Amino acid sequence: MDVTTRARIRAGDQQAFAELFDEFAKAVYNHAYRLTGDWSAAEDVVSLTFLEAWRLRERIEPDGGSLRPWLLGVATNVTRNMRRAARRHQEAMARMPRADPVPDFADELIGRVADAQRLADVRAAFARLRRHEQDVLSLCAGAGLDYAEAAEALGIPVGTVRSRLSRARKKLELAAAARQVRGDRGTAVRSVKESTP
């Protein structure tokens, strides 16, 4: 590289620096790859080397030979600094408390969607019951009252509670059977049936 080009680079001439890059980028890249053994890391070294060379351009000797040795020296230092930073990062990460592994929430999400659909089906089936059947089912299955307590709460005979609850269960079983045809097992309705006295 001639004295004039060196002077232009030292003065901050971007065109002269672009010529420097064009002439030596491949040599810096190959050197960086030999130092790192990684194509991607070598690309980072090239970028950082020329950024550092631009920053240090005023240190270029006004007269001398090729700037290739100087650039390769800058690349060597950049690589050393990158390794040091990576090592510090790894050491810092090793000191961090270990986080619990993040659970895969896909199965839980699928379960929630299925539960929401079953709940919607149960609500729809419940809404199709007569009002007095809803009352008995709510008291016996929902509130956990026995027949006598439900009869007292509604002011009706125990036998009426039993017959209304029986009709409500049969209607819900029919709804569950229809859902079972669609591929659902009707677990929500069965759980309502099993929780009643």
What descriptive keywords fit this protein?
197 residues; mainly alpha; Rna Polymerase Sigma Factor, Chain: A; Arc Repressor Mutant, subunit A; 2 domains; 9 helices; 0% strand
CATH architecture of the largest domain: Orthogonal Bundle
CA radius of gyration: 39 Å
Choose one word for the global shape: rod-shaped
Mean pLDDT: 86
Query: What is the CATH first-level class name of the largest domain?
Result: Mainly Alpha
Tally of individual helices = 9
Structural class: mainly alpha
CATH superfamily of the largest domain: RNA polymerase sigma factor, region 2, helix turn helix motif
**Percent helix among the residues?**
over 70%
Q: Main sheet? A: none
β-sheet strand percentage? under 5%
InterPro entries: RNA_pol_sigma-70-like, RNA_pol_sigma-70_dom, RNA_pol_sigma70_r2, RNA_pol_sigma70_r4_t2, RNA_pol_sigma_r2, RNA_pol_sigma_r3/r4-like, WH-like_DNA-bd_sf
Family: Belongs to the sigma-70 factor family. ECF subfamily.
Domain RNA polymerase sigma-70 region: 20-88
Protein name: RNA polymerase sigma factor
What does this structure look like?
- By secondary structure, the chain is an all-alpha fold.
- The protein folds into two domains: about 5-95, Orthogonal Bundle (Rna Polymerase Sigma Factor, Chain: A); about 115-195, Winged helix-like DNA-binding domain superfamily/Winged helix DNA-binding domain (Arc Repressor Mutant, subunit A).
- Helices cover about 75% and strands about 0% of the residues.
- The radius of gyration is 39 Å and the shape is rod-shaped.
